[in-house]
């Protein structure tokens, strides 16, 4: 018990006490805390794969749209004619600024990689339905039938929230994690079923869900 008390103090009572409430005792709380760390890390891995697949698919369609509709060179992120909400334009400017601060050579690929998960979520919101979803973004989800924007967005919102909780080291043990994992695979499958199968075959999430401490 001494080591549990020491960890409780180091982790901060305000942080550790909700685990005690959820688990029923300090030793059980520590087991739940350790499991929360493991499942959060596993979700971080799989959410990262979803993010890469999502941003690459959306970027590909935006490049095609930019060339076809605006007779551009594919640099949709630099073109003032691209109908992006000002918040998203600000995020692009920040991403470019971070590259400059690192003295990195700016390329479209690097800017796209620098954009946060939230950028891609809000790109798919209702504000961009008529201007970007209908002519371009829906084609990033070839296995979604019919291609209804909310079928993507409504799955993406809780996954984005989950990722943010993980990034800030917040508890996730109380969330419907099995459902979140199913949605992650479904959303990935809308883009590429092969990638969804690969995530399923490599992730630690199912095993960890089965091993949750009582």
Describe the structure concisely for a colleague.
With 214 residues, this protein is an all-alpha fold.
What does this structure look like?
By secondary structure, this protein is mainly alpha-helical. The chain has a domain at 43-63 and 117-210. The chain has 11 helices and no strands. The protein has helices at 2-11, 13-23, 26-69, 86-101, 108-114, 117-123, 129-133, 149-167, 177-191, 193-202, 205-210. Helix 3 (26-69) packs parallel to helix 9 (177-191). The chain is elongated. It starts with a helix and ends with a helix.
Structural key phrases:
214 residues; mainly alpha; 70% helix; 0% strand
The helix fraction, in percent, is over 70%
Radius of gyration: 20 Å
Major β-sheet annotation? none
- In round numbers, the mean pLDDT is 95
- Ranges where pLDDT stays below 50 over 5 or more residues in a row are none
DSSP summary: helix tally: 11
Give the secondary structure arrangement, pairings included.
Blueprint: H1 2-11, H2 13-23, H3 26-69, H4 86-101, H5 108-114, H6 117-123, H7 129-133, H8 149-167, H9 177-191, H10 193-202, H11 205-210
Helix pairs in contact: 1-2, 2-3, 3-8, 3-9, 4-5, 8-9, 9-10
């Amino acid at each position: 018990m001494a080591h549990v008390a020491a960890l409780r103090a180091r982790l901060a009572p305000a942080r550790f006490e909700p685990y005690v409430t959820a688990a029923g005792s300090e030793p059980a709380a520590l087991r739940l805390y350790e499991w929360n760390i493991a499942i959060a890390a596993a979700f971080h891995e799989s959410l990262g794969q979803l993010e890469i697949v999502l941003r690459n698919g959306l970027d590909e369609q935006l490049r095609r749209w930019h060339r076809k509709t605006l007779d551009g060179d594919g640099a949709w992120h630099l073109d003032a004619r691209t109908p992006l909400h000002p918040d998203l334009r600000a995020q692009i400017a920040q991403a470019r600024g971070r590259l400059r601060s690192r003295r990195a050579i700016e390329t479209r690929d690097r800017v796209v990689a620098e954009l946060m998960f939230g950028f891609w979520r809000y790109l798919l919101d209702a504000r961009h339905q008529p201007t970007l979803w209908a002519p371009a973004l829906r084609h990033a989800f070839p296995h979604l039938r019919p291609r209804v924007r909310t079928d993507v967005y409504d799955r993406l919102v809780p996954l984005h929230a989950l990722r943010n909780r993980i990034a800030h080291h917040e508890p996730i043990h109380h969330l419907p994690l099995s459902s979140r994992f199913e949605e992650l695979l479904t959303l990935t499958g809308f883009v590429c079923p092969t990638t969804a199968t690969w995530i399923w075959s490599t992730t630690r999430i199912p095993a960890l869900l089965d091993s949750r401490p009582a």
